[in-house]
Design brief:
heterodimer, A: 111 residues, alpha+beta, 4 helices, 3 strands, B: 857 residues, 11-stranded mixed beta sheet, 53% helix, elongated
Chain lengths: 111, 857
């Protein structure tokens, strides 16, 4: 499934970004994508094509919950909420990510 | 938790899928609104949203993968796809299913018989621990003979090797069953019998040493006669006028001997066990159970060492036994039971396997040709991102489907042919009847089908993988593969055809042996002589003779082709054996005077037996030409005296020698006694020559003469002769059927392959013809290609046959295993089929119209 990769993001980081987004407030898919794009100042653009598979993965793992709700425009939408185990997962992933980034930085800055 | 979630999601995936579609749709609308808000037109906005999203379908598909078991979904998808492919190609599917079905069916049927007959004939838990003892006198050409009481006692005393020893004796009782006199078949057994076979009673108990007139019923008999009612325990059955008490019931799967309905206690009289009675009264079948940790070969050693001590040269007895070549043989129970059936059944199994392998090769070629046709589909799927593994999986699943259908069909065929096999009438049929399609056999059949489907599915898959590596399988390696296929198929078919040919020639030879009497229109039936009815035999014979349509009637014991005459030693008055000459052995028949007329046995000298040769009159006999020529060459034996049964009997006549045991071999010298003068036996048979069916005639005559006389083994003489061919007939018919199937498969397979090759090369042929090649050359080239590979196959087939025929030789009659005529004939036939199969496609190649081909391209 080579085409699953999100070229703009490091593999595995999309899950982390979604979880992080949801720690602020429950949100729907469109909102999550908008938020990440806005906060990263357009540096990170979520391909909607990979957003939904990632959300399903988080659901299956029990890291987020989903409930049906209605949008401001009266559309039926699904609102995602982070669960306690999702928070734990986010912490672990963020720590790992920190280590990785620090390692990469050390290699790049080595003279 | 995760697994549980997955299962939950996976099971709800249809609803989730709808939800997701809604959700994605909502998202897209929001995007569109956003873009419109940023100033795009509605169309532009929709297009932009579309682009951002990629294909909504693929997003959904990937999401679906997240819920759960990707491979389950993938396999389910493959299965659906495979079913569709299979439906779309009904001819290929039908061919594959039929091929696998025939192969698996034949195999499963044969294995069911193998299992019932060879591996575990009576459903024992540990058949390997049970051995059978038989007596052999090399000097008398006597082997596999039953034991006398002496061997039983001696084996019983070898407690270091055997934990249990039993002696048994076949019995047939006259019993009253449902108010009708019936013959009950069973066995007298010593108390150790059921312990030797490790059986426990279903109810009641088995014999102890105090039991006399008690009876253990077989499960089958208990069920059919008493409805498996426990209240039958303790009831009595009158056997031969003596009440027997029912003390127990054997388990359902224990059927030994196969025909046994009941067992009664056997007490071997002490005088029978006296040393001087070795070789006398040899009627006991003896079975032993090996002690723990004693191997069969150790047991054989133990017995051989003992027999060697018996032959001590310092005693007259010992020297006598050494001279006679006396041995006690121990063999495994399965071998004892199966005897002559072993080899034929293994041959059948091998033949069925050849059919299956041929079939697999065929299906492989069919699938290969289809892979060639599906290259485009595969290329598209590869370029769309399918992995090679996925495509191979797809192909394997398709062939597994074919295998599963073929297996199911094969089990149908197996069930049908087993029921056919168990109805075959041969002496060993009681054994064959135990063959059944049980659960384990079904697994075997299905397993075989799936294994073969993998075998033939893997070939196209490998080719596909290979083609991916190199642009195309190069032609020479492809040619090699095709040649290998042709060679193997031709060789396999040839082996079967040669075997069939040899068997056919044997049958031809046997069919043309005349038994030297006229069996046509003769019917026979055995009955048990009533004890308190003097004159019964005379009244029965005259009633038979006066029955409507009867030309002649006679009584005899035994009748020809019902298991052989009564072999016995004989003496001639005033004559001594030459030193070193083996004992004189002959067969005795006890017949009424009209016997020779009824069977049309020609009288050569003197007179036949007469009604005046009755109980009180001087003992006389008639001998056959074989005895006369050997012992009285160039002289009239009339007036000489022979001692065999009941003292010296004066020879009054000579009749033609007949074959009375098997068609293949001359019988031993025969002495005919008057049935009235030697009333030793409790049964006899009636023979009638009549235009109408004789069986009912005899039945009616016996019933009218004495209503309490049971009658059994009612058979036409011709059927008896046919049955004497025994398992050979079954093997012959089955091997012929297998050979026919195999030939058909080979023809279809070769034709399919040739057609495929021609199809692939149509363009090349067109070009060559356009460049001036002769059509004759094209035709010759294709035929030559097939014939060269075929010839190698023929050589291999002849080689394998020559090697394998040694196992067939016991089934052959007056045919040398390396029979030139059969080998040449069979090779010719197979080559002819090869030619025929290749000719049409080759002809089509030769008739290719270059314009048509080149335009088409």
């Amino acid at each position: 499934m080579d085409n699953l990769k999100t070229p703009e993001l490091l593999p595995g980081t999309l899950d982390m970004l979604i979880l992080k987004t949801l720690t602020r407030a429950p949100n729907h898919g469109y909102g999550i994508a908008q938020y990440i794009q806005r906060v990263s100042e357009d540096a990170l653009r979520i391909g909607e094509g990979s957003l939904y598979p990632a959300l399903q993965r988080l659901l299956v793992n029990g890291w987020v919950r989903a409930e049906w709700g209605t949008s401001d425009t009266g559309r039926k939408i699904r609102i995602y909420t982070i669960t306690p185990s999702g928070r734990k997962q986010l912490a672990a992933e963020a720590r790992d990510y920190g280590f990785t980034i620090a390692g990469i930085a050390r290699v790049l800055e080595a003279t | 938790m995760r697994i549980w979630n997955r299962i939950r999601f996976w099971s709800a995936r249809a609803r989730l899928d709808r939800d997701l579609a809604d959700e994605i749709d909502a998202h897209r609308h929001m995007l569109v609104e956003q873009f419109e808000h940023q100033g795009m037109s509605h169309g532009e906005a929709r297009f932009a949203a579309q682009r951002r999203f990629g294909s909504g379908l693929s997003s959904r598909e990937q999401s679906r993968d997240e819920w759960g078991f990707r491979w389950v979904d993938a396999v389910a998808r493959d299965l659906r796809f495979a079913l569709r492919m299979i439906r779309r190609q009904p001819v290929l599917t039908l061919a594959a299913v039929l091929t696998v079905g025939l192969g698996v069916g034949a195999n499963t049927a044969v294995v069911s018989v193998l299992k019932a007959v060879l591996l575990n004939p009576v459903g024992l838990r540990d058949p390997g621990r049970i051995m059978a003892a038989t007596v052999r006198f090399d000097q008398l050409h006597m082997a596999h003979a039953p034991n006398s009481g002496v061997e039983f006692r001696e084996l019983q005393s070898m407690t270091d090797a055997f934990s249990e020893v039993t002696a048994t004796e076949g019995r047939a009782w006259t019993a009253e069953v449902n108010g009708e006199p019936a013959r009950l078949v069973g066995r007298d057994v010593t108390p150790g019998f059921f312990r030797v076979f490790g059986q426990r009673p279903v109810a009641g108990r088995f014999f102890s040493s105090d039991d006399r007139d008690s009876l253990v019923l077989s499960y089958r008999f208990w069920r059919t006669q008493f409805g498996a009612d426990l209240s039958a325990l303790g009831r009595t059955i009158v056997l031969d006028g003596k009440p027997h008490r029912i003390i127990g019931f054997a388990p359902p799967d224990f059927q030994f001997p196969a025909s046994a309905e009941a067992w009664a206690p056997l007490v071997v009289a002490p005088e029978r066990m006296a040393l001087s009675n070795r070789g006398n009264n040899m009627t006991l079948a003896v079975f032993v159970r090996l002690r723990d940790r004693i191997t069969p070969s150790q047991a054989v050693d133990r017995v051989n060492r003992y027999v060697a001590t018996l032959k001590a040269p310092d005693s007259a007895d010992g020297r006598e036994m050494a001279k006679l070549g006396y041995f006690i043989d121990l063999e495994s129970f399965a071998r004892f039971i199966a005897g002559d059936l072993r080899r034929p059944l293994w041959i059948l199994w091998a033949a069925a396997l050849v059919v299956l392998l041929t079939g697999c090769a065929n299906v492989a070629v069919l699938l290969l040709s289809r892979v060639a046709g599906r290259k485009r589909e595969m290329a598209i799927r590869l370029s769309l991102g399918a992995s090679r593994f996925q495509i191979v999986r797809q192909l394997l699943i398709e062939s597994l489907f074919l295998g599963a259908f073929g297996g199911a069909f094969g089990l149908l065929i197996a069930g049908w042919s087993i029921s056919l096999l168990t109805r075959v009438s041969i002496p060993e049929k009681a054994l064959l009847q135990q063959a059944a399609l049980d659960k384990r056999l079904m697994f075997y059949g299905l397993g075989l089908a799936l294994a073969s489907s993998i075998a033939f599915g893997i070939a196209p898959a490998i080719q596909l993988l290979r083609e991916n590596q190199a642009a195309a399988m190069n032609r020479s390696s492809k040619r090699k593969f095709q040649d290998l296929f042709v060679t193997a198929e031709v060789a396999a078919a040839l082996v079967l055809v040669i075997s069939t040919g040899l068997l056919l020639r044997s049958f031809w030879a046997i069919e043309h042996v005349r038994p030297a009497f006229d069996p046509n229109n003769v019917s026979t039936a055995y009955f048990i002589k009533p004890k308190n009815d003097p004159g019964f035999l005379d009244r029965l014979e005259s009633r038979l003779a006066s029955s409507p349509g009867v030309q002649s009637a006679a009584l005899a014991y035994p009748v020809p082709f019902s298991g052989g005459g009564l072999t016995s030693m004989f003496y001639i008055k005033g004559r001594q054996r030459q030193p070193g000459e083996p004992e004189w052995h002959g067969e005795a028949y006890f017949v009424s005077p009209s016997y020779f007329e009824a069977l049309r046995i020609a009288l050569m000298r003197g007179r036949a037996l007469a009604p005046s040769d009755s109980a009180g009159a001087p003992l006389v006999c008639v001998i056959d030409m074989r005895l006369a020529e050997r012992f009285f060459p160039n002289q009239d034996p009339s007036g000489q005296e022979i001692g065999m049964y009941g003292g010296w009997a004066r020879i009054v006549g000579v009749v033609r020698a007949i074959r009375a045991t098997t068609l293949e071999a001359d019988s031993r010298p025969v002495v005919y006694y008057s049935l009235a003068q030697v009333p030793f036996f409790d049964q006899a048979a009636a023979l009638v020559r009549s235009a109408n069916p004789g069986g009912p005639l005899i039945r009616e005559a016996v019933r009218q003469t004495n209503g309490s006389v049971p009658i059994f083994d009612v058979r036409r003489m011709q059927d008896r002769i046919a049955e004497s061919l025994g398992i050979r007939r079954v093997v012959f018919v089955l091997v012929s059927v297998f050979a026919a199937i195999c030939l058909l498969l080979v023809a279809v397979g070769l034709h399919g392959l040739a057609a495929q090759v021609v199809g692939e090369r149509t363009r090349e042929i067109g070009v060559r013809i356009a460049l001036g090649a002769q059509r004759r050359q094209i035709l010759a080239q294709f035929l030559r290609g097939g014939l060269v590979a075929g010839s190698i196959g023929v050589l291999i087939g002849i080689g394998v046959s020559t090697y394998a025929q040694s196992s067939l030789s016991s089934l052959l009659y007056e045919v040398q295993p390396f029979d030139i005529l059969t080998f040449i004939g069979a090779s010719g036939a197979v080559m002819l089929i090869l030619l025929f199969a290749v000719f049409w496609p080759a002809r089509r190649a030769a008739l290719v119209e270059p314009q048509a081909v080149l335009h088409y391209e």
